[in-house]
Amino acid sequence: MRFTPEFLDEIKNRVNVSDVVGRRVRLKKEGREWRGLSPFNSEKTPSFFVNDAKMAWFDFSSGRNGNIFDFVMATDGLSFPEAVEALAGEAGLDMPKATAASVEREKQRAGLVEVMEWAAQFFEGTLKGSRGQRGRDYIASRAIAPAVQVEFRLGYAPGERYALRDHLASKGASAEVMCEAGLLNHGEGIAVPYDKFRDRVIFPIQDRSGRVIAFGGRALEKDVPAKYLNSPETPLFHKGHLLYNHHRARKAAQERGQGHGHGTVISVEGYIDVIAMHAAGFPNVVAGLGTALTIEQCELLWRMSPEPILCFDGDGAGRRAAAKALDTALPALTPEKTLRFAFLPDGQDPDDLAKSGGGGAIAAVLAQAKPLVDVLWSREVEATTLDTPERRAGLKHRLGELARQIGDETLRRYYGQELYGRLDALTGNRRGDGPGHDRRGAGAPQNGRPGRPASPFPPPGRPRFGSPPPLRGYRGSAPAQLSAGLSRGADAGAPVFQRREVEILAIVMNHPALLDHHAEGLSELDFEARELAGLRDRMVELLSEHVPDHGSFKAALDARGAGDLRRRVQALAERAPLWSTGPAAAPEDAELSLLQAMALHRKARDLHRDLQEARDALARDPSEVRWAELQAIQAHLTTLEGTEAMVEGYGTLSGQKHAAD
């Protein structure tokens, strides 16, 4: 059933996101937002936020976000219509009333579903009976266990022309209904409709609720024109809008995402591949239905996981199929919806790999899955030589055109910069206008640096958001800090500040409107540096004055005697790798960066407290249990290396690059 935007908006207006999420997550009020532990990842420090005003939730630990419908689908494993129905009841709204025409269509669908179930039972029974030996022999040759056969409802269509037709007629099904369900061949030149599936192993195709709506049949004779035959398009079955094994994979992906990192879903190319992967321990697997991946199928995958893995054969055909899938998905990519690509060893499909190496071999291939940008880059570079300026310019043009296909503005610009940076590295070029390059004023200052285009995104070669330089090793009981050289700048003898504390304050200084929503959360942060804690308190005090912009906000801080420290923080932030501290960043990007930085800061502080407690406990009780607890906390600290990073010399190296440019 389709729902009007007005109906969905009415539900969202009546039901608070915090009420829906609060049934699964213990939430604590923080300013105008709510904060709690992620329902998708196991964590000790909350990084899950709910904003009722925006009707949205954000999970920084898993990178997921959405509205109330998305949350119910993700946590309860419901389809969109099911989620709408559940939330409409909570909102006190009646579901849209069906028209006479829609009622008639639903009756027709119900009749077709019943006939398809009868057909599935017939095929299952035939496989087990005296006429099913050929089907059983084929299934045995593929080493499909009896329990798996039953779970996937495998069957066999006998070779007679009217076996299924006569069976269904005996149960009261008319020839017209059988034809409409796609079970009989009929039409011009066919006097008497006859069975579409004959002498084939049958794979029932089920919808998201598990109802049989179509069939796939594998021929057992070698000279049959179609090795695999699917049901035709029917009122129940639109192959470009469905995935084989969707109803099982959806639940498996959701379960794997609970407490162990958000789950993923794997897409392979055939029925047998799905069954083999499932039997090898990968129930979160689906397959297309004999067509190239469609955008509708991509959307189904993204509802199960923000980053599905498409698994292809490693030969030329598999590469071409991957390229088609990439082109299909590219316009619909967003920061929350992308793809990864896994390529099997040449000459092997998932079934072969499962038989030769089991689940371990499959896991090894999936672990090597490549991001979409890598596959796109490889395809374009491998398709040309770069021995002339014309060919290099041609590649640059194609990369720009590809980047511009992405509908999401932020991601489009990131892709442009990424592809441009790779092209510069490949050709040895040190400067140029890359695909997606911001042209809002060449020579305008960026974050205080003259001579650079004004852009809220880092230029090629700079660390990307969320990926600062790695830690140089574990530093004991204190969180990672800015190096002495970077934090002191021109003021020898000044204290060393933590990078994350500097970034948090810089974001708020350059985007003071964020205080309206996050003053309480900012006030609760435990700052290491007393000077920065004092600056934070003065910034929060300015909330009552409603300072309109970052220039006025900084002037107000200066008037309160915080000018020297404010300028020092600003100078440090300009040298650090988080681009969104600057005033040129979009307000939405700055807010997300602030929330992430605050969440990471809390997590780091809590972990260091836990570490000290574990050391004290180990000193009192030097046992293996206490040692294991200490090691576990240190392992958690290691996972923060990418975000709590030392940045010694970054400003100097950055300055050298700009000078070279």
Query: Which stretches are low in confidence, meaning pLDDT under 50 for 5 or more residues running?
Result: 258-262, 436-493, 641-661
Major beta sheet, specifics? 5 strands, antiparallel
The structure class reads alpha+beta
Helix content: 40-55%
The whole-number mean of residue pLDDT values reads 80
Count the DSSP helices. Answer: 25
Radius of gyration: 30 Å
Number of β-strand runs: 16
Measured distance between first and last alpha carbons: 57 Å
What characteristic shape results from the CA principal axes?
elongated
* Total domain count: 4
Classify the beta-strand content into a percent band: 5-15%
The strand order across the widest sheet is 1-2-3-4-5
How is this structure best described in words?
By secondary structure, the protein is of the alpha+beta class. The protein has four domains: 5-91, DNA Primase, Chain A (Alpha-Beta Complex), CATH 3.90.580.10; 106-237, DNA primase, catalytic core, N-terminal domain (DNA primase DNAg catalytic core, N-terminal domain, Alpha-Beta Complex); 246-377, 3-Layer(aba) Sandwich (Dna Topoisomerase Vi A Subunit, Chain: A, domain 2), CATH 3.40.1360; 484-660, no CATH class. It is 50% helix and 9% strand. The chain is built from 25 helices and 16 strands. The strands form four sheets. It has a five-stranded antiparallel beta sheet. Helix 1 (5-14) packs across helix 4. The two termini are 57 Å apart.
